[in-house]
Design a protein that fits this description.
17% of the residues lie in helices and 31% in strands. It is an alpha/beta fold and 320 residues long. It has 3 domains: 90 residues, Beta Barrel (Elongation Factor Tu (Ef-tu), domain 3), CATH 2.40.30.10; 110 residues, Rossmann fold (3-Layer(aba) Sandwich), CATH 3.40.50; 91 residues, Ubiquitin-like (UB roll), CATH 3.10.20. A 6-stranded antiparallel beta sheet has the order 4-3-6-1-2-5, covered by helices on one side. The protein has a 5-stranded parallel beta sheet with strand order 9-8-7-10-11, with helices on both faces. Strand 8, helix 3 and strand 9 form a beta-alpha-beta unit. The two termini are 18 Å apart. The relative contact order is 0.13. The model has no long low-confidence stretch (mean pLDDT 92).
């Protein structure tokens, strides 16, 4: 991780669902950086692993709150955090970054989330309520017992805007997401965060919507398979540093830049967190990320250099 970090003390840890813990991290007031709803931070663990977690609420009084799903079959970061980190411990965290910001000034908002995907949406609901904005919040969970922050949600000042859809036991059926989206007014801004299947259904349903009307955030890489014709070497020119070099087929653009002495902030190396998104001056891009929106990809002005590339045999000019 090349992003600068700051120490943050764990001042609270609470189990908010059977497999989900919340952590409140207190930073030094001189290093504290404010953030808006939708932001996330990098957390560096003692093992050296770096993971990204959305903020549960807009940070205040020098603290950041995150929620972590303990994944038994994950890559180890969530287990280490949930099992080994205790109140009083100190972690290294990055300043907040926001790839999922609220589009201000909309007439109405629709928030849809499930599981750990509720995290950034909870921050949005609190922010929209404080701004006296109109919104509806649809939440999906198997049972009341596994819904994170359930008590807080039920007793919130915006509880009348919440629609919970339980799918287990004798509870009502699952949310008909396609029907909900099709019934949404064109002026409504939609934010969705949740499991891959939920996001896939949302993408399919809104395929013909105007760019930017629906925003999503993904915690896992998308299923992007590179076509054979897109797998090859290409040339890179770095406009500000004045370097030119070739990127081999089996080397990532991020690694190639670092090999040539150009360090770019990075974190996940999977194209999900957005840390390494870099300005592009010209080039034919092959996007393989899960963090840019369609309109950002179509503009040709940005790329996630940890996974994305240029067309083989072409020249890519970066603003670095």
């Amino acid at each position: 991780m090349t992003r600068s970090t700051m120490p943050a003390k764990v001042v609270a840890k609470e189990r908010v669902a059977p497999d989900i813990w919340s952590f409140v991290l207190e930073a030094d007031e001189r290093a504290f950086v404010p953030a808006d709803a939708g932001s996330h931070i990098d957390v560096k663990l003692r093992s050296g692993l770096v993971r990204q977690y959305s903020l549960v609420r807009e940070p205040r009084n020098g603290t950041y709150e995150i929620a972590v799903l303990r994944e038994e079959r994950g890559r180890g970061g969530s287990k280490e955090l949930c099992d080994s980190v205790a109140v009083g411990d100190t972690l290294e965290i990055s300043a907040p970054r926001n790839n999922f910001p609220l589009d201000q000034g909309r007439a109405h908002y629709l928030l849809v989330g499930g599981g750990i995907g509720l995290t950034p949406l909870l921050a949005m609901a609190r922010s929209l309520h404080e701004q006296d904005r109109k919104f509806d919040f649809h939440i999906c969970a198997r049972t009341p017992e596994v819904l994170p922050f359930r008590v807080e949600i039920e007793h919130s000042a915006w509880a009348d805007r919440v629609h919970v859809h339980y799918t287990g036991g004798n509870a009502p059926g699952r949310l008909d997401l396609p029907a909900l989206l099709r019934a949404t007014a064109p002026e409504t801004q939609v934010y969705i965060c949740g499991p891959k299947r939920m996001l896939a259904i949302a993408d399919e349903t809104t395929r013909d919507w105007r760019a930017g009307r629906m925003r999503t955030e993904r915690f896992t890489p998308g299923d992007v398979v590179a076509a054979p014709e897109d797998q090859g070497s290409f040339d890179v020119v770095t406009a500000r540093s004045g370097k030119r070099f070739q990127v081999a087929p089996d080397v990532s653009l991020l690694d190639a830049l670092e090999q040539n002495g150009i360090v770019v902030d990075s974190a996940c190396h999977e194209g999900t967190c957005g840390t390494c998104v870099t300005p592009v001056l010209s080039g034919e891009l092959v996007h393989r990320d899960s963090c840019l929106y369609d309109d950002e990809r179509e503009s040709g002005k940005l790329m996630a250099i940890c996974v994305s590339r240029a067309k083989p045999g072409t020249e890519l000019v970066l603003d670095v």
